[in-house]
Amino acid sequence: MTCDPKSLLREARKQARLRDYSAVLETVDRALPHTVDDKKRLSGLYHLRGLALERLFPLEPKRALDCYREAISLHETAECWCFVGMLLYTHGQFEKATTAFRSALRLKPDLAVAQDFLSACLRETCAWALDPVADEGEHKLGVTTSPPFGRLAAEDCPARQLERSRLFAQTEASSVRHLTERLGAPAIGALDSSRFRVGYFTADWGEHATSRLMDGVFRNHDPDKFEIVVYMYGPKLDSSLAERYRGAVSTVHDCNRLSDGDFVELARGHRLDIAIDLNGYTRFSRSRLFHARLAPVQVNFLGYPGTLGASAWDYIVADRVLIPEGFEKFQDEKILFMPNSYQPNPRERSNSLPDVNRATYGLPEGSFVMASFNRAYKITPKVYQVWLDLLEAIPDSVLWLWRTSSTQEKNLMALAAKRGVAERMIFSDAVSQTEHLARLSLADVSLDTENVCAHTTASDAVWSGVPHVTLAGRQFAARVAASILTAAGLEDLIASDYPEYFETVRRLAQDR
């Protein structure tokens, strides 16, 4: 067995391309004792070790971060700074991530992935004036190194979102081409021909919005007609969910540590009829594996609000509000139109919500409470100005927002102070789902964002009896709330432009 550091580094890089992170860790640990005199090569090994630790132990980010920082201390590269930034971003440390991406761009100003993630960090902290790529009309589409999800919130343009998805899909497909060539086409037909065997692929098997929405779907499959297999590859398997779905879900496979090749072979060995991707291009996604064909029929559903830009997905699940007539051309998948809304919701909601009152959250009694519990990256300068206009127009109103970082709060408060309404801004931290649903009912109206509007947040508001006012855009991600409101018979809460949005909220304030 060779101990040549150069050969071992080359081997570890190949294993990383194959996503075989357990092997990467083993190879790097073999190489490190023999690489003490070559700082550049040693840096590369620590970089790979950090990558492996990040993927294998996603809930222990410090282990990977220490390796990345050791790599940078030995030999500073833009790429390693970028990995530091992406890790910090994933764990909500947006201010530190911003510093890391700026360091990456100092070394390589044209590094597209660093540009995109820096822009995302600045949106998460509502530091819009500092965004280097805020002018979307001038943004270059030649970005294949970063997922297109980060651009969804930057503009409402289905044509450009389609092109970004296509470019990223090409990169993803090339990363698993070796599997396609080695394994060929998947076998057709389930082992048990009396039932359809359906595989759901998700990184969000736990306390996550997607899991909550899918609750009723999993539990209402007819076990006489469908065999349901779940492939989980996120940071943590929630065993309580597996228990709740017992009888409806046949098997749950924890695939987080499987290499791409082992993952594909596992899924193909189950002879699925249909593979359903519940992630798309979101966090912890392994959607690239769909390019290697996990089943004869593959579906893009729920997790990613838009096309994935490739023929690997045969269908996308939508409805006629999400994708109106004339907009089908912006989806590369065939469209399965649901009769009402594409978004599933569990019929059974807990009635044992905690008792809450306005005083608990600093909400004045008798005031008109306008709430928006969307993530900060969805807030745009335009929609925030409309919210401040509403504060001015409705004297006894307050604006209640989710505090996602201290910098976000500071930046929004500074803009509100310029308009003289800062004392009517109220921020609350994240709480459990049950408390969130309870506190949401304290609001008088739920305000939507644009470009990427409320999804689960919108249906939560409707379930809580709170009118949700949305601005229906053009792209899929900007029309989800409109889909939910239409299905609920609340079309009068859907605005087509900013003046109508403003007037809809003011009308509600005048009719308590």
The beta-strand count equals: 13
The gross shape turns out to be globular
- Beta fraction: 5-15%
Across the major sheet, the strand order is 3-2-1-4-5-6-7
**Cα-atom radius of gyration:** 24 Å
Count of helical regions: 19
**Which bin fits the share of residues in helices?**
40-55%
Terminal-residue CA separation: 77 Å
The low-pLDDT segments are: 135-144
Looking at the chains present, what oligomeric state does this protein adopt?
Answer: single chain
**Mean model confidence by pLDDT:** 91
The largest pleated sheet is described as: 7 strands, parallel
- What structural class do helix, strand and pairing data support? alpha/beta
What does this 3D model show about the protein?
The protein is an alpha/beta fold and 512 residues long. Helices cover 42% and strands 11% of the residues. It has 19 helices and 13 strands. It has helices at 5-17, 21-31, 39-56, 61-74, 78-90, 94-107, 112-124, 149-152, 158-175, 177-183, 209-219, 239-244, 260-269, 381-393, 406-418, 433-440, 456-463, 480-487, 498-509, and strands at residues 196-202, 226-232, 251-254, 274-277, 297-300, 315-318, 334-337, 368-372, 397-402, 425-428, 445-447, 468-471, 494-495. It has a seven-stranded parallel β-sheet with strand order 3-2-1-4-5-6-7, with no helix packed on it. Strand 2, helix 12 (239-244) and strand 3 form a beta-alpha-beta unit. Helix 1 (5-17) packs antiparallel against helix 2 and helix 2 (21-31) runs antiparallel to helix 3 (39-56). The chain starts with a helix and ends with a helix. Mean pLDDT is 91; it is low at 135-144.
